[in-house]
Design brief:
Elements: E1 5-13, E2 16-25, E3 28-32, E4 36-45, E5 48-57, E6 71-80, E7 83-89, E8 98-104
Antiparallel strand pairs: 1-2, 1-8, 2-3, 3-4, 4-5, 5-6, 6-7, 7-8
């Protein structure tokens, strides 16, 4: 099941590849990489999920992995444990298939009395 949380994201098309950080919470998904922002909604049904994601360029630079900006993607994937795999398509760039992987970041629980950025040290 695709859980709420923060994921490392890796994706590719025949035109290129990229990485980023993706967030999932309350049936919403959003992300950002060096040139694009991504936002949308997702539905989870057991181990399968679908998402509709809007892509917008935020910074000039290299071409996107689609060779186009400002797209809407449909993602279809499965999630087993901490790893989700998906494929994506966009009507704006027919025939270009996106393949991707999301890896859930599970932070280690803090030691009792530990605050963010600090560690308890013995005297």
């Amino acid at each position: 099941m695709l859980k709420d949380g923060t994921y490392a994201a890796w994706f590719k098309t025949p035109l290129g590849n990229g990485t980023g950080i993706a967030h999932v919470a309350d049936r919403k998904i959003w992300s950002r990489d060096s040139i694009m922002t991504y936002s949308g909604t997702c539905e989870v049904d057991g181990d399968r999920f679908t998402a509709i994601v809007t892509l917008k360029r935020h910074t000039e630079g290299h071409a996107t992995v689609f060779g186009a900006d400002d797209l809407t993607l449909r993602l279809d994937g499965t999630c087993l444990g901490k790893i989700a795999r998906y494929v994506g398509t966009s009507g704006q760039v027919p025939g270009v298939l996106l393949q991707g992987t999301l890896i859930l970041n599970e932070q280690q629980p803090r030691a009792r009395g530990e605050r963010a950025g600090t560690k308890i040290r013995p005297f």
